[in-house]
Amino acid sequence: MAGMQANDFGKVAVLFGGTSAEREVSLNSGSRVLAALCRQGVNAHAFDPAEMPLDTLRAFDRAFIALHGRHGEDGTIQGVLELMHIPFTGSGVMASALAMDKWRTKLLWQAAGLRVPEYALVSADSDFAEIEATLGLPLFVKPANEGSSIGISMVKREGDLAAAYSEAARYDPIVIAERGILGGEYTVGIIGSGNEMRALPIIKIEPATEFYDYEAKYSRDDTHYLCPCGLTQEREAEIRKQALEAFRVLGGRGWGRVDFLMDEAGEVYFLEANTSPGMTDHSLVPMAARAAGIDYDSLVLQVLAQATLG
Q1: For this structure, is 115 an active site residue?
Q2: Active-site option among 22, 101, 172, 213
Q3: Among this protein's residues, is 272 annotated catalytic?
Q4: Does residue 283 carry a catalytic annotation?
Q5: Per CATH, which fold does 6-90 belong to?
Q6: Is the pLDDT reported for residue 146 higher than 80?
Q7: Of residues 274, 276, 283, 296, which has the active-site annotation?
Q8: Nearest-angstrom CA–CA distance, 44 and 32
Q9: In degrees to the nearest 10, what's the CA dihedral of 216, 222, 223, 227?
Q10: CATH 3.30.1490.20 for domain 119-179
């Protein structure tokens, strides 16, 4: 795929917008991706699945997926593109569906020997007090199938888990309560496929809010992103290798992001994977790519060049 020219990609659909709770973020990401491709002479066009019939995708030779959340990074649109034989960016159907499901991601990572935060599934019939006692406070409560911190609450006081569960259950029937790991939040961008897959420099995230919530991700200018992240070269190399393994376990390809937490003792706990990362001005993969010497336009073209089927 190296050395591909703008006209080699044919007619490209940039998919963004969509119907998920992350529509606004996707509109931001996709418009930037579209502009970057057009700047480089690619025959790229906007395609919003919420407003255009999916059948009209047949007019395109390749698709750049800049959708986030349900129906965009959960394997759904990937399946449509597979059926139409249109090569697309990012992971395939299975990896996209698995990564979107935080619970099943944890099960796979645990089976592969990767450490994840201690957690419990929560339902309306759960003994909330017992879960609070077992996991300890603070804990985080989240819907299993949402992104961008939508529906997430931090529980700091005994008795507050019930309300946090109700908030998360608005977005998904599967709700996870997770022990708070408070030694630092980090992310690893990933680009490439197969033997050429590589991890980008680690970013440490320091929000001014209590945790890295939706506002801290997209609205505030006082969230600090540290790259270099402050770890030794040896420790960073070790974690980047583990992040690649975490991504491969899910079947990820093309590009993505793996988030992890660190406790006060320096132990790493893998949190979740993202198979259609944000591409906004606050987004982490473009930030990590810059630290690796890859500018935004080059990153977008590299991702597009990885588009494939199967």
Answers
A1: no
A2: 22
A3: yes
A4: no
A5: Rossmann fold (3.40.50)
A6: no
A7: 274
A8: 12
A9: 160
A10: yes
Which of these is catalytic: 69, 185, 257, 283? Answer: 257
The dihedral through the CA atoms of 29, 30, 35, 37 has a sign that is positive
**What confidence tens digit (pLDDT) does each residue in 229-242 have?**
999 999 999 999 99
- 82 annotated active-site: no
Answer for the pair 207, 167: CB distance below 8 angstroms, yes or no.
no
Residue ranges per structural domain of the chain: 6-90, 98-113+181-305, 119-179
Among candidate residues 186, 218, 269, 296, the one labeled active-site is 218
Q: Tell me the per-residue pLDDT of 53-85, one tens digit each, with 9 for 90 and over.
A: 999 999 999 999 999 988 999 999 999 999 999
Q: Indicate if 240 belongs to the active site.
A: no
The pairing of beta strand 11-15 with beta strand 62-65: parallel
Single pTM value for the model: 0.92
Is 26 designated active site? no
The fold adopted by the segment(s) 98-113+181-305 is: D-amino Acid Aminotransferase; Chain A, domain 1 (3.30.470)
